[in-house]
UniProtKB/TrEMBL annotation:
Organism listed in the record: Billgrantia bachuensis
PANTHER family reported in the protein's UniProt record: AMINOTRANSFERASE, AMINOTRANSFERASE CLASS-III
Source lineage: Bacteria, Pseudomonadati, Pseudomonadota, Gammaproteobacteria, Oceanospirillales
Protein name: Aminotransferase
Swiss-Prot/TrEMBL cofactor(s): pyridoxal 5'-phosphate
Keyword Hydrolase assigned: no
Amino acid sequence: MRRYDAQALWQKDKDHFIHPFTDFSLFHDKGCDLITDSDGIYVQDAHGNRFIDGIAGLWCVNVGHGRAEIGQAMAKQATRMAYFSTFNNLSNAPAAELAAKLAELAPAHLNHVFYSCGGSAANDATIRLVHYYFNRLGKPSKKRILSRNNAYHGTTYLAATLTGIESNNWDFDTLDHLVTHLSEANLYRRPKGMSEAEYCDHLVAELEETIERLGANNIAAFIAEPIMGAGGVLMAPHGYHARMQAVCRANEILYIADEVVTGFGRLGHFFASEAVFETQPDIINCAKGLSSGYAPLGATLISDAIYEVLGTPQRKGGVLSTGFTYSGHPVSCAAALKNIEIIERESLCENVREVGPYLERQLKTLSHHETVGDVRGSHFMLAIENVADKATKELLPVEARVGDRVAAEGQKRGLIIRPVGHLNIISPPLIWDRGVVGRVVAILDEAFAAATTSLRKDGYL
């Protein structure tokens, strides 16, 4: 194993790498922790410290780290043919094989695949295709996209506009003339005294009122994560997605499921929309677990009905003039094919369906801690919301950095989880078993206790 000069590497990183989602109030002094090695459920930093990976890299290393057979599949493809264009009626074997495999795994009406390089690009490309679709139908006024507050759909220009997390766009420009945000579906913070069923009625009514206000002839699509991810692992009331889709269909509004996080086993199925939420989206976007992060790859799965329009030449000599240099990249597609093979062969979806409910139950035991207000999510997609007062659900002040405190205490004890403001997110590799869950929850129990002590010492509790 290669040894690194940890200090020199830290300095190079601090001096030259602009990290996504960097907190510069900390970065200029502290820099970053450098992760240099990985294996299975573990990662290791440049100093040789080993950690359980509680976030699967970033919602994506579903089959675990260090899978030699994925690396070998990529190397084999790279030495045979690393790259060639997929423009102008050219293709490659892994892209064709993967498209067919995705059509097999997806709901039956989604048989066509448009490749991109990740989740943000998939969402951007999807909206461009949706607009093109309605233009081709002779309905050019259908441009508006409905998204939701606290949704996360990426950070490219249009995807950032779709994203409804206010802080994500502080001082950034957005394309607000194209997007309208609805209320997020957040069971924990639903209006006081409202039942789950009433809350669902409330959210559906808001969609109906928005369509009436904007005009269905001006709305192209509604985009939604089955479970909202970076916005807080927010759970919708039962029946929400199916009812929202029904309203969309009644108004000729396309229903887009952003399964960048929920796809490829995180909820126990390759795709969650139909299997878990009883919806049949017109489009599903995916990335992350598609290749388990071993290579950048995104995909937009398109219905037969939409493809019939997209696949009809718009004029003599006309082409579908959108795409990317790396659309259907053969090495990335080879990685995804081997990744899917592993998920199927090792029954990882079944493992998530068996271990996931156990992980949920064990995490809920942390509710005895003073700051733990809510433990929510499903299977291997979970979050803990920290509060100052459980009865009122009041949050601690931002400067308390409660999520950071808990994550730091966990890391001291050998576990990496993700802090997002007042939240802590757990989204592990799909290979965790009950034994690992027990170790993780024991670490978290200590981490929350230590964080509570420090919060009290600093006068926040």
